[in-house]
Amino acid sequence: MDSDKRLDSIGLGKTAGASWNLGVGALYEHAVRNRDGVVTASGALLCETGQHTGRSPKDKFIVRNAESEADVDWGDVNQPMDEASFDRLLNRVQAYLQNRNIYVQDLYAGADAGSRLSVRVVTEQAWHNLFARNMFIRPPRNELPGFSPDYTIIQAPGFRADPEIDGCRSETVIAVNLTRRLVVIAGTSYAGEIKKSVFSLMNHLLPAKGIMPMHCSANIGPNGDAAVFFGLSGTGKTTLSADASRTLIGDDEHGWSQSGLFNFEGGCYAKVIDLSAKAEPEIYAASHRFGTVLENVVMDPDTRTLVLDDRSLTENTRSCYPLDFIPNASTTGIGPEPTNVVMLTADAFGVMPPIAKLSAEQAMYHLRSGYTARVA
After folding, report:
1. Residues 6+ apart with CB under 8 A from 69
2. Containing domain of residue 173, as a range?
3. Do the strands 298-299 and 306-307 form a parallel or antiparallel pair, or are they unpaired?
4. What DSSP state is assigned to residue 8?
5. CB neighbour class for 181 (10 Å; exposed up to 12, middle 13-18, buried from 19)
6. What's the gap between Cα 170 and its chain centre?
7. Is the predicted pLDDT of residue 2 greater than 70, yes or no?
8. What pLDDT shows up at residue 367?
């Protein structure tokens, strides 16, 4: 068992083997060989996440220490974990991965080179590595030899945490240590935890630089006018931003700086329940391509064609694909300051009419009040 010095700092220098920055084809081979995914008739890689078909916000913790103490709004959302518990959890995850083959991707978060993070994603399974490769920005090959991560994410879905030992709530845990620059994800195969961990880091770091991190989609019109679409998952951000008459900047996470908008990501993570070729042709086409990762989508076992209206596994079926699978996607991930801000809701209480034009003050009030939608 040879030591990989690039992983020594996170205690994973000696594993059964580490596969670095594999391409799409190789990751497919590993996923199928390890029986972690199957190939659909259209070429996408289909994987199931088991018990967790969505994120587990009650199992997310931030290590409380001198660096995080004053900057985190502690409570039910940002739950504290002490340093000793994190160290025990990390040591146990390291031991769990010691005799396993692991997969590593070196990636960027942030299309703006001056504000981006270098992120190393270490996963137990090949398909999660492909998810990360699709989801974030891939460095040019010549930048990989000298790649130095700002943060590292270790994802071990097969590990089961012990609340009495690890200081968590259940067998599932997402633990963020801002001082050690580490995120540990264990006990869940839902790939969205990787994506949202990076978003959490950007939310922590960017405001100090005068940049607003946003959960929104964004696009640019033919006259150079940019629009952003705020809203929870399922309210239409991805669908509206993929408008064929406009250039897609990104479908979910962006920064708004003095110079304009920039995407945090290099891919899309679209909900595909009831997806149709007629209503959403770009997303439908992207979800039927080699290189796309499908999560919890049902397929016909004989023909291997997708059954996109089947909710038997979850309502939250997902498709993860690189941005360049969308024909009208921006090649830079950067846009000007927006001239239109759209807030998508599902209002069952009649607070506002179905379509409302708000003043800047009204928009800020509703945004700060957290007025949004509760959907699956």
Report:
1. none
2. 15-21+55-209
3. antiparallel
4. G
5. middle
6. 22
7. no
8. 74
Catalytic residue ranges? 55, 196, 215, 233, 237-238, 252, 318
Q: Say how many residues make up the chain.
A: 376
Position 165 pLDDT exceeds 50: yes
Give me the long-range contacts of 327-332 (CB less than 8 A, separation at least 24). 327/244, 327/282, 328/242, 328/243, 328/244, 328/246, 328/247, 328/248, 328/282, 329/247, 329/248, 330/220, 330/247, 330/248, 330/249, 330/250, 330/263, 332/111
User: Do 201 and 218 sit in the same domain of this protein?
Assistant: no
CA distances from 43 to 20, 21, 32, 309, 348 (A): 23, 21, 13, 19, 40
d(CA 224, CA 334): 12
Same domain? 238 vs 113: no
Q: What is the pLDDT of residue 376?
A: 45
Distance CA 275, CA 152 (A): 34
Give the residue-averaged pLDDT of 154-177: 97
Q: What is the CATH classification number for the domain harbouring 324?
A: 2.170.8.10
Residue 231 within a domain:
yes
Same domain assignment for residues 218 and 202:
no
The better pLDDT of the pair 235, 301 is held by 301
The answer to whether the CB of 296 falls within 8 A of the CB of 48 is yes
Count the Cβ atoms, other than its own, within 10 Å of residue 61: 24
Cβ contacts of 54-59, under 8 Å, gap ≥ 24: 54/190, 54/192, 54/314, 54/316, 55/190, 55/192, 55/193, 55/196, 56/170, 56/172, 56/174, 56/188, 56/190, 56/193, 58/169, 59/168, 59/169, 59/170, 59/172, 59/173, 59/174, 59/187, 59/188
What's the rounded Cα separation, in Å, for the pair 23 and 173?
29
> Which of 193, 209, 225 corresponds to the end of one domain?
209
Same domain, 301 and 283: yes
Q: Of 166, 191, 209, which one is at a domain's C-terminal end? A: 209
Confidence check: pLDDT of 346 > 80: no
CB atoms within 10 A of CB 113: 9
**The pLDDT of residue 218:** 97
pTM: 0.94
Amino acid at 81: M
Pairing of strands 212-220, 253-257: antiparallel
